[in-house]
Amino acid sequence: MGIVVQKYGGSSVADATSVKRVAQRIVATRKAGHDVVVVVSAMGDTTDELIDLANEVSPLPTARELDMLLTAGERISMAVLAMAIGNLGQEARSFTGSQAGVITDAEHGRAKIIDVTPGRIQKALEEGAIAIVAGFQGVSQTTKDITTLGRGGSDTTAVALATALGADVCEIYSDVDGIFTADPRIVSDARQIPRISYEETLEMAANGAKILHLRCVEYARRNDMPIHVRSSFSDKPGTWVVKAEDANTFNSSTGSGDASDSEERPMEQAIISGVAHDRSEAKVTVVGVPDKVGYAGSILRALGDAQINIDMIVQNVSAATTALTDISFTLPHTDGQRAMTALARLKDEVGFERLQYNDSVGKVSIVGAGMRSAPGITATFFEALADAGVNIEMISTSEIRISVVVAENQVDAAVNAAHAAFELGTDEVEAVVYGGTGR
Amino acid sequence: MGIVVQKYGGSSVADATSVKRVAQRIVATRKAGHDVVVVVSAMGDTTDELIDLANEVSPLPTARELDMLLTAGERISMAVLAMAIGNLGQEARSFTGSQAGVITDAEHGRAKIIDVTPGRIQKALEEGAIAIVAGFQGVSQTTKDITTLGRGGSDTTAVALATALGADVCEIYSDVDGIFTADPRIVSDARQIPRISYEETLEMAANGAKILHLRCVEYARRNDMPIHVRSSFSDKPGTWVVKAEDANTFNSSTGSGDASDSEERPMEQAIISGVAHDRSEAKVTVVGVPDKVGYAGSILRALGDAQINIDMIVQNVSAATTALTDISFTLPHTDGQRAMTALARLKDEVGFERLQYNDSVGKVSIVGAGMRSAPGITATFFEALADAGVNIEMISTSEIRISVVVAENQVDAAVNAAHAAFELGTDEVEAVVYGGTGR
Q1: Choosing a second label site near B381 at 20 to 30 A (CA), which of A101, A143, A195, B429?
Q2: Can you list the positions of beta strands (E) in B208-306?
Q3: Which of A69, A81, A146, A147 to mutate to test the interface with B (most CBs of B within 10 A)?
């Protein structure tokens, strides 16, 4: 039997009781014959509490020291988890990111993994121990300082370790059963997706589904590492994230207990895999931009220089009589103020008329590899929105996704309309368990 | 100006406010022209809280994982302290024990320092930064695992680093002003000692004075590193712990601000430096041991095999008519049950009559290098005790110390009697600040 990497998030190890429950699951996997490597996040709200402490002594703590501080969180959870496993009679050894060989660049707070050299983990496995690894952290190749990968980085740690160890699967545990066709809090008949491709998962994650971190999926896609997204509160199979050609036919060969009895995806692949939504963005419109070469570039350069990540960009067709155009884009709420400031400085240079800011918007996206070969998808989507009385403010598409920006108070209606139009629901309504915000 | 190592205990960095206060003190030392290395303990009760957490998941956590867990405490305090210093405009970089080059053996929970290779600390100092180092922790030379030095180990870290860096002084900060002639909570006119030798400090520490850890003083003595024991709550000079020949004439050459104006010790050295007391021990008597060669050895071997540290040992002169003797010894309360169990197993082999256990005892010691050349010290001590109505149960002596075991409810009377007999008090009663249990 091969190596299984399991990652448990903060809500799965929130207190001593949760830690003991997780320990039992880990020991069960070990007893099923697998070599087990566990990546763990900080317990519950530890990270937030440490950030609060930092802010008490300094309004702008240095990134190096903030990383040193935050990594204490995983140090606690991994040691406690190792003890809980030891108490069940199985040897477990905890390792910091540095000890586990997670080598990064020196960008504190958002370090990128350069290399993984898991010699000590392999030795622990060879000696029969379960290895517990601190998620979210590494050590800089150049400065030897402790780094963190940024929020949600533990998922990336897990996939990176799974890849370096040649694991059969990377299991990502949270308090959610898997990836759903839509948020079950909005769509009552939302269905858990048994298998989905990396590409679709990336589009889902990038467009508001909060289950997996983008970087983690990207890392898995590049290295073809299957991810099994599942709940630490149940033994039900979750969602397998695999390469596109396996998304229909993939069958687990890891023998990880319950994977073999997960249902096959229907032979005829669904056109649309799911509906994602995102309320975290705002829309900015630069009104009355002279429709000349280079002006759009100036605007985007100004936003880039201000370190603002913009998402969708739309430039209206200019009316020939005025030679003026409008440029709209979306960006995270949190960057709104900075973007408006940066753009206001450009007013004289570019000569636009005015700026509009609207944070009462939401983005609704349909994602599916099937839409590549299925004509009429956009029409079906837009007709469904129209029938539900939803007005479309912006449109953006990729090869496997169509996104629209709508008024925030129409997001729920739009998600339900799209979910129904593409027949994503279950036949009978199941009691789905979903708790992205903790339970 | 040279290097100053400062060590701050948990009570000095109990919360954000304390951390900011300590940061100001550190920055002031830096601005006075010193290179500053700070060793810090975990904040307030963090270590106890982490131990509680460990016990929640496992009644007997493995030593390796307990060390991993506990070292999170200093990781938090050192990063927060570095941030607080940064907020005052001075660069500070925190380092774990491992990063600071504190190399130990692999004895988790009570590791011994083998070597200190502070290359990264020296580099930080050369680059103008203040170095903050996690106390209490190191890394095993053989296993590369994280180790801890045991309770109070941060003092030892500080002295070891001071030695390796060739520092001018190791300042140990706590909530106490220094070393006193007796516990001011018991003796109202107890006086702060300006200078004291390593040897006297060792005897004081070994016999109940709780200010410095034995290992730390021993390390300083071996390497002739002056220790300045002082309060982080005031700028008053504290107690200098130095080699015996300097205890009279020593004058700080570190220029550490207030050291130069500390009063000289009187030219004629006091015979007795201080009175220490200890209520943490119990007395065990093995009654009716056959007075034959080897029986005392068997008893001590049994205790040694049970890993029990005994302190005083007294064997009564045997009465020739019975050929039986009594052996009494003292040991920590906490080892009492194990000692009694180990001894009970010997009953048939050795053939003693019975065991007596008494934990209502206390030890009172007078310590002073001067007693080497002053006759009559023992007589003065014992007469004072007799005058105070204190009964002596056991006696033990070293070259610079006389200890007696008395009933626990007579400890205060005995300490006061000894303190007065050797005229250790101040002329006028000062408002001394003392707070060994926190304030």
Answers
A1: B429
A2: 227-231, 239-242, 274-278, 281-290
A3: A69
